[in-house]
Specification:
Blueprint lengths: L2 H4 L9 H13 L21 H4 L7 E3 L5 E5 L4 H15 L2
Antiparallel strand pairs: 1-2
């Protein structure tokens, strides 16, 4: 599950890609294990939605030794933690 596919706009969720996977799995009698590709998958923020990627002031980045931002969301940024947590809680309660 890619965060950018499921929440393309903040607070607007689209589970159609997940629904399609479940439908195909049911059709062929296959079980699924869904993996959440989000905030820190492979150490980068590639699977984060555009509203996260384009707001470095709100969603802080990790920094190099000389203080330059890199393409990784900071694990210490409250906005990032809250956005991730909100989505995961939504999924857990669905």
């Amino acid at each position: 599950m890619f965060w950018d596919q499921v929440e393309p706009m903040e607070g607007k969720y689209d589970f159609s890609s997940v629904d399609m996977l479940i439908s195909i799995a049911r059709k062929y009698g296959v079980k699924l294990i869904l993996v959440w590709f989000a905030t820190w998958k492979n150490g980068t923020m590639d699977f984060s939605p555009a509203w996260v990627k384009t707001d470095p002031k709100r969603f802080k980045r990790e920094k190099t030794a000389d203080g330059k931002d890199i393409w990784v969301l900071s694990s210490h940024c409250p906005a990032t933690i809250e956005a991730d947590k909100k989505f995961l809680l939504l999924c857990a309660n669905t």
